[in-house]
Every structure is written in structure tokens, then in C-alpha cells.
Design goal:
7-stranded mixed sheet
Length: 362
């Protein structure tokens, strides 16, 4: 049997009729940028995330960047980011000219460690960007307490956590603002690129609406030095369709995660740790073993596709070679030991059973 890591054709086939209807609706409208589909999706996703404002933009990186710009963060400022994350979190800080302060994760949850955050704050620190990694919320009460104590902004990177909850509250509603991505492989994935910024601050929301559209509040009037970063009508229409199925898709991911975790109990392959206050959505199911490469090869030989998220930590990337190196041993250990197993709403019971059988054989 062949088990793909992620089969987007199968994922999207379940909504094919509705996606085709959305496509035809947009084509017939004759309006393809900043129209009714975007307005409707922004309203629907804001309600889903339990925030006042959602502003669609071109991608997740732009969402973080525009939030930083809207809050006036730039050269001379320091922004705390996780050492264990996808590089977009770092790139957004670099793009606005601020300095990156990398903080290690909790070695059990793999999310940013609040105590390490507090130890890294200086007089130049202005913001913290916690990432809800792999679909599991970071410890936001602890992070917000630190931010309040030191008068810092908290901008959630919620790109992997569509629908996740922390103590009963939705990811993206837990800080001053949040950014997300609708890259096709995300739990809520477009059929192309896309992203959004979320906030309860109406002034920040209005500023991002201008920044995403050349700094323009009305056509041909440019009040800010803006950008071109817009979620188009077609992607917004597709996302409206897929948002209706998000909770069902997440429920299937939770069931697969439960089966994996039960199967791995007591083995040398360490399953993900889930705190009692967390309700993750399992964007990724990440296991850990010091025999990672052998496990990955074993699964590959047996037709099970896996991935490593992420094989090279941001601080080891060539683009950050000019940043003074600091010891980030936990991020480097995780990069050498973690492995992502197949998990998506499209996986069949037979496929899940097969993966489990091959894990047990290892």
C-alpha cells in the first residue's frame, strides 16, 4: 500500500461541486479583487476565530509583516520569535527592519517556552510572536502575563492552528492580533496562496486594509507607503466553501491523532504531548526518536510518505548567516529527531491502520 503524506486532490474532491459553484459565481460576477466574496469570507472567518476583524492578504508572511508595520515596529526594535518554527515567522521581522531574538521551545511541547521568553527581554523588546506549532496552541496565558508585565505586543502566528482552542478560546483571538496562512496544505487551505490578519483593534484593522492595497483608503489616494498583498475573490470564495467543512475535517484529524497516540504508547517513538488546556487541530502529527532517519527509511520502504518539519532551523539557514550565532540546542535536537506522519481528513481507515502496523513493526 502507498500512503501519501498529503493528497490535496482527494482532500478537495469532497468539495468539488461546491468549489466549482464558487468558481462559476466569481467568474459570472466580473469582479475579481476586493469584492463581495472577500467581504463575506472576512466576516465569516472573523466570527469563526472569535475576533472583530479579519483582513485578507496575499499570504501568511505578508500577514505577519503587515501587522508589524501597522504597529510601528521597525529598526531598533527587538521581536521575540521561536527558534523552532517555519522561517516565515523570522522573515516577517527581518522584512520590517527589526532584530530577531530567538527563544527556545519547551522540549516537551515543542512550542515557545514562556520562561525563556522572559529571560530574553531587553529594553529594546517590543513584541512576542508565539507560533501555535503543528496545530497546538502555545501557552498563551503565561505569554500574555509576561507581555503585560513588560508592556509588549503579542502577535500570534496561527497559520497552523485553524480551529484550535486554548482553554476554550480560539487560536487567533488570544493576543493583540494574529496572522494566518491559507497555503493549500493548511487545515483551511486555499487553491493557491492566501493569508489573513486578525485583530479586535479597529484602528489596526483599518491600517492593514490600507497597507495591503498600496497604502490607499480610496482609489488613487495613497496615505501610507503601502504594499500589494490582496486575497483575491476566487480564493476567498473557495475558502468560504472549505470553512464550512473545517470542523468536520479537524474532527477526523483528531481521531487519527488519537489512534496514532494509542498505538505509540510505551514505545521508543515519542508521540506529541498535549497539555490539558490545549485542544489542537493536528495540522501535523510530529513524533520524536533518536532513530528518526531509520524510521523514515523504514516507512518509505513500506510505502508510507513522511516529512521533516523542519530539517534546518532558521538560525542555521544561509540567509541568517550574518546574525551572531547563539546556542539553540533544543531547536537543533528537534531538527534531528522529529518526523511528521501522514495526517489529513482524506486518510482512510485502512491507510491509518497500515501506517500504525508499520510503526509497530519498526
Amino acid at each position: 500500500m502507498k500512503v501519501p503524506f498529503l493528497d490535496l486532490k482527494t482532500v478537495n474532491r469532497s468539495s468539488e461541486i461546491l468549489l466549482n459553484d464558487a468558481f462559476q459565481r466569481v467568474i459570472a460576477s466580473g469582479w475579481y479583487i476586493h469584492g463581495q466574496e472577500l467581504e463575506a469570507f472576512e466576516s465569516e472567518f472573523a466570527e469563526y476565530c472569535e475576533v472583530k476583524h479579519c483582513i485578507g492578504v496575499g499570504n501568511g508572511l505578508d500577514a505577519i509583516h503587515l501587522l508589524l508595520i501597522a504597529y510601528g515596529i521597525g529598526p531598533g526594535d527587538e521581536v521575540i520569535v521561536p527558534s523552532n518554527t517555519f522561517i516565515a515567522t523570522w522573515l516577517a521581522v527581518s522584512r520590517c527592519g527589526a532584530s530577531i531574538v530567538a527563544v527556545e521551545p519547551n522540549p516537551v511541547s515543542y512550542n515557545i517556552d514562556p520562561q525563556a521568553i522572559e529571560d530574553s527581554i531587553t529594553e529594546r523588546t517590543v513584541a512576542i510572536i508565539p507560533v501555535h506549532l503543528y496545530g497546538q496552541p502555545a501557552d498563551m496565558d503565561a505569554i500574555n502575563d509576561i507581555a503585560t508585565k513588560h508592556k509588549l505586543l503579542v502577535i500570534e502566528d496561527a497559520a497552523q492552528a485553524h480551529g484550535a482552542c486554548y482553554r476554550g478560546r480560539r487560536a487567533a483571538s488570544l493576543g493583540h492580533a494574529a496572522a494566518t496562512s491559507f497555503y493549500p496544505g493548511k487545515n483551511l487551505g486555499a487553491l493557491g496562496d492566501g493569508g489573513a490578519a486578525m485583530t479586535n483593534d479597529s484602528a489596526i484593522a483599518q491600517k492593514i486594509k490600507q497597507l495591503r492595497n498600496y497604502g490607499s483608503p480610496i482609489k488613487y489616494q495613497h496615505d501610507l507607503l503601502g504594499y500589494n498583498s490582496r486575497l483575491d475573490e476566487l480564493q476567498a470564495a473557495f475558502l468560504r466553501v472549505k470553512l464550512r467543512e473545517l470542523d468536520n475535517a479537524n474532527a477526523r484529524r483528531r481521531e487519527i491523532a488519537r489512534l496514532y497516540t494509542e498505538a505509540l504508547a510505551g514505545s521508543e517513538i515519542v508521540p506529541p504531548y498535549v497539555p490539558e488546556w490545549s485542544d489542537p487541530v493536528w495540522h501535523l502529527y510530529v513524533v520524536r526518536t533518536d532513530k528518526r532517519n531509520q524510521l523514515q527509511e523504514h516507512l518509505k520502504r513500506n510505502g508510507v510518505e513522511t516529512m521533516v518539519h523542519y530539517p534546518i532551523p532558521p538560525h542555521r539557514q544561509k540567509c541568517y548567516a550574518d546574525i551572531p550565532q547563539q546556542p539553540l540546542p533544543i531547536a537543533e535536537i528537534l531538527a534531528a529527531e522529529i518526523l511528521s506522519l501522514p495526517i489529513s481528513s482524506s486518510l482512510s481507515g485502512l491507510e491509518v491502520d497500515y501506517v500504525i502496523a508499520k510503526l509497530k513493526a519498526f
